[in-house]
Write a structure and sequence with these properties.
The protein is built from 1 helix and 7 strands, in the order H-E-E-E-E-E-E-E. The chain has a 5-stranded mixed beta barrel. It has one helix at 2-22; strands spanning 42-53, 58-61, 64-68, 74-77, 80-82, 91-98, 107-116.
Amino acid sequence: MRALRLSLLIIFSLFSWIQVASAVTLPGESAANPYDVNSVGIVERGGVVDAVDFSKRILVVDGVNYHFQAMPVVVHLRSGIGDEKSLKPRMTIRFTTSRNNHSAQDQIQEIWVTGYRPKPVLK
């Protein structure tokens, strides 16, 4: 029994040492952040549409501005396929953005309408 405990202690301390060694970054090297939403890959987001500005090609979702890509964006409605002009305030949506473009800013790639939030009742 004592030998088993000793061997488990050695194994756990070895794994602890490996974790500490892999957490070290060299001077001048930035640590990787797995939760970075500013990555160049596709990021899925969601929220409630606050406003749509078709002239500036901006969609405001939960107070954050997102730009439409240069090409028409496909909007998946419950009744079929639409475009940016199908979007209305208070719609709940899921959408994908990508920073892999010439302007290096988040641009909307595709949108799915998931519902419609009615106006709140003020008392």
